[in-house]
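hiii so my PI (J.) wants the whole complex modelled not just the main chain, which honestly fair. so below is everything: two entries, each one labled with what it is. i double checked the lines twice but i was tired so who knows lol
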Amino acid sequence: MILEITTTYQPATDLGYLLHKHPDKLQTVALSTGKAHIFYPEASPEICTACLMLDINPVELVRSRKSPSPTLQEHYVNDRPYTSNSFLSSAITKAFGSALNGKCNARPELVDTPMPFTVKLASLKADGGPELLEKLFGPLGYATQFEQLPLDERFPGWGLSKYVNLELRHTLPLKALLSHLYVLIPVLDNDKHFWISRNDIEILLQKGQGWLEDHPEKEWITRRYFKNLRRYSNEALLRLAGEEALAPEEPENAVTLNLHQQRLQKAFELLKASGAGSVLDLGCGEGKLLKLLLQDGQFKKLTGMDVSFSSLQKAKENLHLSDAAPALRERLSLFQGSVTYQDERLSGYDALAMVEVIEHLDEERLPAMEKVVFGLASPPTIVLSTPNAEYNVIYQKLQAEDFRHEDHRFEWSRPEFRNWCEKVGEQYGYRVSISPVGPEEPEVGAPSQIAVFTKK
Amino acid sequence: MRSPYTMKDIKLPEIALVVLVGPSSSGKSTFARKYFKPTEIISSDFCRALVSDDENDLDATKDAFDVLHFLAAKRLKRGKLTVIDALNIRKEDRAKLVQLAKDNYALAAAIVLETPIKTAFERHAGRTDRNFGKAVLEKQFDSYKRSLKSIKHEGFGYTYFVDTSEEQTIVRQPLWNNKKEEHGPFDIIGDVHGCFEELNELLQTLGYLVEKLPDGHYHVQHPENRKLIFLGDLVDRGPDSPEVLRLVMDAVKVGKALCIRGNHDDKLQKYLLGKDVNLAHGLEKTVQQLTNANKEFKVELKAFLDSLIAHYVLDNGNLVVAHGGLPEEMHGRAAAAVRAFCLYGETTGEIDEFGLPVRYNWAKNYRGKATVVYGHTPVPTVEWLNNTVNIDNGCVFGGKLTALRYPERETISVSAKKVYEEPVRPLLPEEPTQALSAQQQQDDLLDISIIKDKYLVETGFGNRVIIREENAVAALEVMSRFAVDPKWLIYLPPTMSPPETSPLPNFLEHPQEVFQYFRKNGVNEVICEEKHMGSRAIAIVCQDPEVAVTRFGMQQPAPGIMYTRTGRRFFDNPEHEQLFLAEIHRALTASGFWEQFHTDWVCLDGELLPWSSKAKALIINQYAAVGTSALNGLAQTETALTKALARGIPVEDLLHETVAREKAIADYVTAYRNYCQETNGIAGLVFAPFHILATEGKIYKDQLHTWHLEQLKNICAFNQVFLLSTNNLLVDLNDEASVKEGINWWLEMTEKGGEGMVVKPLEFIPTNKGRIMQPAMKCRGSEYLRIVYGPEYDLGENLPTLKQRSVKMKREIALQEFTLGLESLERFVKKEPLRRVHECVFGVLALESEAVDPRL
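here's the output for the full assembly
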């Protein structure tokens, strides 16, 4: 919530010229919500410190928001007024806009003059661990120092928080310093709170000019800047690489198939091989499998079901259902439902698919699903996949973000999955065959496992 | 034209499809308007105009008739008399309508308008709205005349030929099966099959005085004036059918009994009428027994059998009796298919290994409001399924003769004296008796159709709750992904409203407004209960783990369950759940609860403390994170401002604000810390129950809150480590001193960091002038509110801003959820099908997804 910029450049008070802010005054600028104050706790020829203090009223922040946030408690009890991440970039633009853009009419020669700076940021949220700070600022030449805040000193067992007091030292032009802060500070906070638009690509490219192209973490920075929205980040990355943006969709080929796509591909092949003409995708999510199946004329009737209404909305968008031609709408439909309720709409298909669904059910609710899917819907073919728990040791070497979905209620080893498949097959009269999905590792097998149940 | 069939009165059944027949300009529309309600008439001209804006557009005929059939079908389905105003002069057009009536279990009636062709021509000439020539009209008259020959044999239950120049009288007749005005109480008796001795004994057991008069007739009377209903199949197979008939006929004649037709009675009638019937399946015995009967008896018998109706709808539509059972869409209908169903039940045409028809279990799919009592297929025991019950326990096959008392729903049986006939199919099931009842087996899975679309719950507390589809959508996800097995979910607690905001400058909420609300609603005394700093928890405790199977229909024995306000299992670790339930069980047992309440399970409503045990992630990620970042950020800001101030920069105001904010944050940290206690396994957890919701067969909505707390205090005393009784204070709202005491009590608690209190009228379901009011209201402490409204909620202009809030919607939802919750318990203790319980519980969850300010 406060940024302190200190310089020992001689005379240090030149900082005031560069920032266009008089060292002996309190100055206030309005932000979209709240205010920012600029004042100097010290200002002598030897040392000069400018402070940018964010003054955000948490109640106003919530009241002024146009769209209500879906998360409940988050509204009023929120770290945003107190951290240095969310509002700092816009405060820098508002308060130090000329300096950021390299303008100084009074002393133009100062703009490109490297000066020794010490920057302090209080309560900076560093999502993804403080070691990230070094990774981000190190390559740009900063000496970094930080202190990580405890969550609550009364409860040491809770450990450290994601907030740090960060100190950066470097000699460089102020313009460069501000553009680094402008891009990297919000990137540190994974809960970025402003709306992402195509316009943000321009801003990122502009502010990152001259340094982001060569930054070793540029991919991560870009991705995070767009809050992992692939479409935009890919475009931005391509443009950073000096190319014009092409089609926003990633080309899919054997090399880029990630695990999920491999799984879908496998499910597709198995469904195709079953000869099914009509397929119901249970837990269709955003419709990726359906999209794959649609391309094949063998599938005359395709239906997606999911328990999450918002996923279905996304599927509807992804599949362009609302403006689809009648022939397509006849072939493809979606509905909300649940595999733990008996549902006549599940009957009459040649095949059902359940790709990575069962592990999202509590294990004690599985018998209900078995009855609904195997007992009542009882199609000729069921294709069902679930992660292989044994493979998780391989994952642990990977980055935190690539860990498996936190909503998994259970993960089965290969023998556990086989036992369950055989038990269900026995009970409901299905033959079962299981195959691995993804690269197989010795001892632990493949990341996922897929079973085909064929009615006896 | 002269017709031999002209009559004075046109008698029509109350539910009928009335088909007007006559060429154009024969006066059909005029006739319809004169004798029927406008909404009862569907005219083809009108439908043609509906789809094409032009009554005469012949291109639109097909679509127009689609609409006409659709509208007629909807009306008939709802049991509404419907008049079709169309030419209907061709046999094939009428056939479609007859079929439509049949499909909707309604009778079809034809009214043929006999208008001389001359009159029609005159009328036609005078019309400007008909654009066809005379030739067309002539052609219509030809087909009309031709069709008149066959109309009597086209399946119309009634056919009338009407001279439109004469005044007519239309008489609407109630159907024979409509006995809605009969309210009982009844004793309904299953298939007697000539077992006179057992019948006599059963009647005595039921308290009837049965007297045989010297002339052989019977006099049957119940001291409480109860009425008998016989479910048919009085005769065949058994030892003394004539005597059974004698008794039943005498009782029916004097209005002490009703009797419906069974397939055996039907066959006997056919035999007596001289029709060719196969003397088998016990009829041969009856015929044999009747040889000595006198002529008078036989005449009377024929009349009696002729009078038998296939089913009755009784008690305002709440009770239906039919020999073979009856699905809802057939209740109160007269049609051949309905009669056949009543007599023979539902069959698929399949034959089982004993050569008997395979019965399709219509009751499985029955969802009607009316209780259906039936017989026909002998079953070893009486089992309810979806509000239907088969009480034929196969007396004649050596089983039992059973009576169902209505409305009590108790069954009373007498055993057969002997096996009068060997059953073709063994009466007893070969497989060992199932642990779960038929209802529980069926309830193993709930059908999504009950909650998929918008639905209504009648709560029996005078309100009906509408569950909107958009809310059901959200609830389905939560219910499917997080909630426990629906069989455990017999209740979800309602949300609770805070008071209107306080006019006092430093308070957002204050007891004054709570007391005022209840005083305004005519309440004299309230109970203030300490609001526990935990999470709402519902505990179901079984006296014996087997109860989970026998009463709750679970597959495995279990000690019970504890779940949250959204139906999630409270404990992630099943071992902890078992240990904790054992602690509650111990206290219940030690206090003698099971004996005192005559129950083997209980459902308790309470709070589980500390809050951090359930909400630790939230506290750490949300509350502690905000606290530490704010304290640090503000402290650094204060330092910088202090330095600037020393330089003479005018930052006094900023500095003061910053210091005030720091204080607010520190208070906030203190507030959330109050909710944090380290727990280890179940050590450190405490359950504070405040309602005894239900035990076997009973819910405790009539007991005062003082009773609930007293009972629970007694139980809690037996386990002071894991159970906590709730501190409370009675406040007399008419006594200023008492109100003051209530306010001080709240101030004292909340100043120490307490969450606040919940204020309730003493009655569990409080009403004012017949209207139900908020059953409880929370009043939260000023420090606690920092967790809800943010650390700085009371600084500067924030409090006045935050006071602009409305509790109206919250209160409406609170009431709806409250009544739904009680209704679900009520249904569960009455052993209603699970779907009836689930629709209430699901409704609570759906209402919770309504967009109400979550801070209220």
